[in-house]
Amino acid sequence: MPSVAPFDIDDYCVAAAFLGDTPVFAAAGGLVHRLDGTGKASEAHDGLLCASLDADNARLICSGEDGRVTAIAADGTVEELASIGRKWIAQVAAGPRGAIGFAVGRTAYVRLPDGTLKEIAEERTVEGIAFAPKGLRVALARYNAVALHFAAAGGKPVELEWKGAHTGVTFSPDGRFVVSAMQENALHGWKLDAKGSDNRHMRMTGYPAKVKSLSWSAKGKWLASSGAPAAVVWPFSGKDGPMGKAPLELGTRGDAQVVAVACHPAEDVVAIGYSDGMVLAARLADKKEVLLRRPGKGPITSLAWSADGKRLAYGSEAGDCGVVDIAG
């Protein structure tokens, strides 16, 4: 039976993560708490808005209401990576080789591995940002399109057009697909070719609520999503992704919505967080479920596996956070 180590931070948890073996919890007030026995926290921002884990699980990249982007290490060290004046930076993403991306209004910024800061102007407000798994290609979600830019080289972007507001974006681990979350309770996807897109659209609908959490399985064969009473998991193993295929529905509950998902780093298992604070793990092969945490004080806001897949960190709107040891 899994065991739970609770950790109350008395604030809205923006992100839970593991930096190496250390669980950390980024709070909306600006503190990043470490569950390492010291009880210490690092002051990262005056109002923290979003966070993204870098590719090596070594730093948590955070942005805030103070117009700054910071990196927090496992020992609590805070490094300022960028500062653009007193503006709310509500989008941030970590990329390959230490690159980071963030956005304010219609302007996206990419900090290259050598520290150079590139600006990218968009026609509409940038609502989501993601890096391709290799290279420095960045996807920017906005109204009516997702734009693909080569951050270092510049040049004309590839426009993946679809009418409506795109509020988030993600690349598949193999870089073959781009999927956006829509304002209208749906996902939209594109299959990419060498030039950017072969114009094959993938429409993933039927959600009763907006999709705010997405997670790819370890080998990229599945994409798990929130926004329904179950975790909706789309198949991407074929050459055309989920086109013509039905998704799996895992952890179905009639009395709560799925609000967070996180795929296991090695196995085809999904951690599922609900609007009442419950956390389950479900296996894709046979839909077998394991209860990891009973309902809590508030909706789950973030889930994160340790690199070895033996522990799961969770955070909530009410700040009742913790770590589940899967082995007990």
From TrEMBL:
Please, which domain of life does this record's source organism belong to?
A: Bacteria
Q: Which InterPro entries match?
A: Apc4-like_WD40_dom, Quinoprotein_ADH-like_sf, WD40/YVTN_repeat-like_dom_sf, WD40_rpt
Q: Please report the stretch or stretches of sequence annotated as the Anaphase-promoting complex subunit 4-like WD40 domain.
A: 265-326
Q: Name one Pfam family in it.
A: WD40
- Gene3D superfamilies linked: YVTN repeat-like/Quinoprotein amine dehydrogenase (2.130.10.10)
Name of the molecule in the record: WD40 repeat domain-containing protein
